[in-house]
Design brief:
By secondary structure, this protein is an all-alpha fold. It has one domain. It contains eight helices and no strands. The longest helix has 46 residues, at 2-47. The protein is elongated and about 60 Å long. The protein starts with a helix and ends with a helix.
């Protein structure tokens, strides 16, 4: 009798911890997603101030000879890793929250979501490095400015991001939308928007800088929705804990009855 009571007490305590963890994971997910979107947009804006690919040699040399222009790019470069860190936290916190919100998670979609998010982060890191390599070379080593290289490196970075990175972003949008739909944490209108955004990112063929705004804008709206969902979770809601221990405790309580 005492053993069962102790088991039930431990089970209730575990359930309470799960409830608070679920609420906190929601707020953490929303905060990390918002931080990623804001930092990414700011960083990309600073990096996109470089001369256009068809700029003249004189314009390219003049731009990279300017201390303010170079340092603007370098500030964007140093901000981008923090955007990536926030995105990694966003992915992990989102997966935690979803796994706690539903009894069964589609392992295939969950793994594709994780891998596509990591690859996307790697690609936009490479993009930032390629775009800023000339500015960094001139700033830190006083290198001569080669206009041809100053055009080619940013184009290489744009290719990484707009051709490869956007496809990985599309996979992340598709999988997150599907997982969130099955878990019941996303409204129907946002699910529809998610599929439209995913298709747009997957099929669009453009290097226009405005294209880069689509994914962080989607993440920002998702974060707002998740914050609202987390805010609505009652503090005293009892959510059954998951795992072998809780299953054993539940079985013991049933057998005792």
């Amino acid at each position: 009798m005492d053993v069962t009571a102790a088991g039930l007490t431990e089970h209730e305590s575990s359930a309470e911890v799960t409830t608070h963890s679920l609420r906190n994971a929601g707020f953490l997910t929303a905060a990390a997603g918002t931080a990623h979107a804001v930092l990414f947009l700011l960083s990309f804006w600073l990096l996109s101030g470089r001369p256009a690919p068809d700029a003249s040699d004189a314009d390219v040399v003049r731009y990279y000879s300017s201390d303010n222009s170079r340092r603007s790019i370098l500030v964007g470069l140093y901000l981008m890793p923090f955007s990536g860190i926030a995105f990694i936290w966003f992915i992990v916190a989102l997966r935690m929250w979803i796994s706690s919100s539903t009894r069964r998670v589609n392992e295939l979609l969950s793994n594709v979501q994780l891998v596509s998010g990591i690859i996307f982060t790697t690609l936009f890191f490479g993009t930032a490095a390629a775009i800023s390599v000339i500015a960094a070379s001139v700033e830190f080593s006083d290198s001569q400015i080669d206009p041809d290289l100053a055009r080619q490196f940013p184009q290489f970075g744009a290719s990484l991001f707009f051709v490869f990175g956007m496809r990985m972003a599309a996979m992340f949008v598709f999988t997150t939308t599907n997982i969130g739909r099955h878990a019941g944490i996303l409204p129907r209108w946002f699910v529809i928007i998610g599929f439209v955004v995913g298709l747009f990112l997957l099929l669009s063929a453009t290097f226009n800088v405005w294209f880069a705004i689509v994914f962080p804008a989607w993440v920002l709206v998702l974060s707002i929705i998740l914050f609202d969902r987390a805010r609505r979770i009652p503090r005293d809601l009892v959510v059954p804990a998951r795992g072998p221990l809780s299953d054993a405790l539940s079985t013991a309580a049933t057998d005792h009855q």
